[in-house]
């Protein structure tokens, strides 16, 4: 085994390793239903095809609206607490230790709800294909998300005809 160059080791650690317990969290909130303390665990790493975030959702709240992805697959790892996975029109109980796999496509709209009396904490891992299209069945919205972080959201009934504005 060779000696470790401390500078190189520190640089590799910065690019490749994150401790999900140490990543600073931000409050993401829209009363009365949505509240979560979130952090992008993979932000600033060399990850390009996988992304990882961490969410802590207080009792009675949810982190995001019911939605499905056209290109991204997701995996959720429940680290602490209990809750409900709303998926494909059903409600399934989830608890610490559960690993949830969500394929892309309209058959699997989903979101996690904290239906317990304690915080629900989970890792959100996803493929990072861009552009991404998400649909929100409860509100009849479509969102398009680019690689530059910009987004466009629109209700289906507000859409334009293909030829609108063309000569």
Automatic annotation (TrEMBL):
It comes from Roseateles subflavus. The keyword Metal-binding applies. Keywords: Metal-binding. Residues 56-125 form the Cupin type-2 domain. This is Cupin domain-containing protein. CDD domains: cupin_SPO2919-like. PANTHER family: CUPIN TYPE-2 DOMAIN-CONTAINING PROTEIN, OXALATE-BINDING PROTEIN. The keyword Metal-binding applies.
């Amino acid at each position: 085994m060779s000696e470790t160059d401390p500078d190189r080791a520190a640089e590799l650690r910065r690019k490749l390793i994150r401790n999900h317990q140490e990543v600073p969290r931000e409050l993401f909130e829209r009363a009365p239903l949505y509240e979560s303390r979130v952090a992008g665990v993979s932000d600033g790493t060399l990850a390009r095809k996988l992304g990882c975030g961490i969410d802590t959702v207080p009792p009675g709240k949810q982190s995001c609206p019911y939605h499905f992805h056209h290109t991204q697959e997701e995996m959720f790892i429940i680290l602490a607490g209990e809750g409900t996975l709303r998926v494909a029109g059903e409600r399934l109980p989830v608890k610490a230790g559960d690993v949830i796999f969500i394929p892309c496509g309209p058959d699997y709209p989903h979101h996690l709800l904290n239906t317990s009396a304690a915080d629900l904490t989970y890792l959100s891992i996803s493929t990072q294909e861009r552009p991404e299209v998400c649909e929100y069945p409860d509100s009849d919205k479509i969102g398009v998300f680019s690689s530059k972080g910009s987004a466009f959201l629109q209700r289906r009934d507000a859409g334009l005809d293909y030829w609108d504005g063309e000569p």
